[in-house]
Amino acid sequence: METRSSVHVARDRFHLAWDPAVPPVATVASGGVVDFDTLDAGGGQLTASSTVDDIGTLDFSRVDQVNGPVEVESAEPGDTLQVDLLDFQPADWGWTASIPGFGLLADEFTEPLLRITRLPGATGRAEFLPGIRVPIAPFCGEVGVAPPTGPRSTIPPDLHGGNMDTRHLTAGATLFLPVFVAGARFSLGDGHAAQGDGEVCGTAIETPMRVRTRLTVRKDLHVTGPEFLTSPAGAGLPIGRRYATDGIGPDLLGAARDAVHRMIDWLGREHGLAPGDAYLLCSVAVDLRISEIVDMPHYVVTAHCPLSIFE
Amino acid sequence: METRSSVHVARDRFHLAWDPAVPPVATVASGGVVDFDTLDAGGGQLTASSTVDDIGTLDFSRVDQVNGPVEVESAEPGDTLQVDLLDFQPADWGWTASIPGFGLLADEFTEPLLRITRLPGATGRAEFLPGIRVPIAPFCGEVGVAPPTGPRSTIPPDLHGGNMDTRHLTAGATLFLPVFVAGARFSLGDGHAAQGDGEVCGTAIETPMRVRTRLTVRKDLHVTGPEFLTSPAGAGLPIGRRYATDGIGPDLLGAARDAVHRMIDWLGREHGLAPGDAYLLCSVAVDLRISEIVDMPHYVVTAHCPLSIFE
Question: How many angstroms separate the CA atoms of A49 and A60, rounded?
Fold first, then answer.
């Protein structure tokens, strides 16, 4: 395959499993620029005019596809792939859903929920609910290289990256991934226009995305899992004043659930939101932090809601 | 007991368990100001000239005392106590230790570690390690009311508050706590000059602290656990650019441990820190966030290190 200094990966060049057996769609020189044109995490099954009924007929075998893989010349197992995230351009709309059986509170939110949001572009704010405007900070939920063995579902992330759903991987950030197979075989997808730390309902503001990256092989660096340098833009996300709710107990997952419950309660009593709307809002704008992980046998997980979204 | 509009709680008015049976040291009117003069979490056993050998002789029965309790007039079970955190004044020194058997990586850091830090006051930065300056953002690790039953150790936090070790509870923040017993019986202690989300080694920069609070009974509000409004100051903590490391796996605690391991590795390879120094630095300056909690069966916990501490 010809090695090029820049590559474009079209929307239809995707795969549905992380697997070293998936053949590369292109080969790029180390330091080369790769542009991706990706569908949303639903693989195009939802549109700006979809309704909640469409959640019931989603074909899950088409969910969380990733575009690529792109082979990077000279990458060998044990190297590190440096991924400079240069630009993200979301579509002019996105969707957020609670899908039965999926999400941190799936046992409570058993009915499908869907919200379509108009997006202003790669910056600014989007009106997620009437009067509630969420800051746009686009990134890809899925960013990864081929794992050592496969096939693996694209749903769980792992040390090769994948569905990390890490909202700090915005334009200007640099991600470092371990290389497991020759050529690294880099792919991405699952465009998110906005998300809180945790992505608690299971989806962000999901959107088709055009992405520009630079891929560089680092022979001098050996990482054992994903590491990253945040961008000035990501660092500058408006945190401002926040309202925060705690979950406290012997289990971090239970504490996280309790913190989100209390946030949903607060969004209801303070801002009049229905529980389902509040749950979706938590997923796109509320951050989960581990406040304390040492005072045994109880941990504290805190949900932080930026008050700027109400202004 | 006389009800006053302001109260001062002296350094020697402390208790060593959360317990509704502990009698109040004073009664304050709702809306009154309460000043506390607290020892450090070690109860005065460590000083600015302590050495690591003193960790071995710490009397743990005196650790994590809290000052109070102060009875708040008219507070009844089911009410909410609003705690306005008005001012924190740390001493001019603090200590950070890894105490054998305690901390997120206690199984690996089995030898005691101690670091004494000179503090510049309630703002500014403190040189925690040569050339590494940590932003000062003082708060109390312990803030709580009497639980419904007792006695309970002051180490684990619970829905009554207590040892929440939540670094966002700085001056200007407002904490809401559920009231379980008549008079609420409010106490605090465990002064921290600086801490990251998680407090991974088990201690922050521990320091004696003078604290000013306003305690107000809220009959109109019913919270079921701690909730808080962050202060502009807390919100303004310098987040800036960060280096971040991931832990990924089926268990949040294991993922948090992996994330901290990778951060310790990075602090070693990039900044030349010994593992013990890096572990203590993580506790006072590195934040644990839950990046993703829904992509079953794998979670992502991320440790964020602000790069400003190296500048």
Answer: 20
